[in-house]
Amino acid sequence: MTELEALRQEIDGIDARIVALLGERFACTDKVGHLKSTHQLPAVDAAREARQMARFETLANEHALKPELVQRLFRLIVDEVVDKHKKLGAAD
Ligand SMILES: O=C(O)C(=O)C[C@]1(C(=O)O)C=C[C@@H](O)C=C1
Questions:
Q1: What ipTM was reported for this prediction?
Q2: Are 85 and 37 in contact (CB under 8 A)?
Q3: How far is the CA of 38 from the centre of ligand 1 (A)?
Q4: Where do the coiled-coil regions begin and end (predicted)?
Q5: Which domain holds residue 31?
Q6: Tell me: the pLDDT tens digits for 32-90?
Q7: How many domains does the chain divide into?
């Protein structure tokens, strides 16, 4: 196996783990969506999101990543979560 092939195999393994973790995260946020729907809570919690975004900046810096990249990725994920919460019946 060439070095390139070996690295691509490593990347494929990492990607599979990222997707599995994303599935785990959505399973967890779906439970939050059901709770929000049951208790008529708003889909969005802006204060929680602000704390998360600050934490992503710290985590990104710890892993030598650009904070804006990590925050953009999570913005995409959290926006999808909010859409799902609303479909489950959480308040606007
Ligand atoms: O913690 C919540 O209240 C959630 O609904 C989860 C979550 C997230 O995906 O982390 C999604 C939407 C909220 O605005 C904040 C956070």
A1: 0.99
A2: yes
A3: 16
A4: none
A5: 3-88
A6: 999 999 999 999 999 999 999 999 999 999 999 999 999 999 999 999 999 999 999 99
A7: 1
